[in-house]
Request: fold
Amino acid sequence: MQQATATPNYGRRILWLGVGIVVAIVLYTIGWFWLADRLEREASAALDALGDRGIEARCENPKARGYPFRLGLFCDSVQFDQPSEQVSVSAGAFRSTGQIYNPSKLVAELDGPAQVSLPGAGPVALDWAVLRASTRLAQPLPERVSLQGKALKVAPAGGDPVVSAETFEAHMRPNDADLDVAVRFAGLTVAPEVVKGRKVPTLSGEADVSVTDGVQLLDDGVHGLRGKAGRVRDMTLTIGEAGSLKVTGPISVDDDGLIDADLEVSIREPKALARALAEAFPEVRREIEQGSAGLSFLGKNPKLPLKIVKSSATLGFIPLGRIPPLD
Reply:
């Protein structure tokens, strides 16, 4: 006699699968809110620790947000005051976030406007359309740190903007024992009152610099440039629409603050560059035009050696003078 084959109970399996999913969601939710509470408590403890060092830092209405797949700290406004250094900064809302599945990558945004006060300078107002920072955490230092901004404006307190830039970005990363730093900006304009009534053309530029033993420098704290060295891989300044200057080469500062460097200066479109400089410095227009005429014999995009020995600078065979010792 043939035995009957048992029929699988698919309904029960589906029921247990649903129960498992619900339990997983509940446990995940409990874990997320536990992490959120811990983040808020650690942020409060970090601010209190700064207060013990004489630094007042405030995060107005701190809240952990981002459920279900993100977690970050949000503040309605932020403030930082260090009376001993005469430094004060206040700004709008702050938002930070990291992915639960990739917690090493963090992104933060800060809303303007901001009020900044620094030693030896009056209060300054800063504003922007976007100001975003990001980092990829690692040990002992982050793999990289980046800052990006759009529509930046700088103004004296209660005044009109005197410096503005369409875009700005800065990046930093360890490279073995050295530190790579890159900066780029575009559409930088400066009001005439900042430069004694001069009409400065729109500026754009970029820099790519390697700081020798920069990782150790970060650990010890930056206390000045003396005893530091590095290499300028690319430092380009575009003045106006066409002309630009590019500098590359090694540079160092000795313990007395004197500079030594063996640089190469590349000039693109020297005639266009001369026109822009002559407009900005009309009192030396003749000298600028004479220099441009001399460069024309070296080709369309001439290159000249810039040597600095104990802060005495020479461009080609032309002495440029002496650079004051650096701090």
Summary: The CA atoms of residues 140 and 215 lie 9 Å apart.
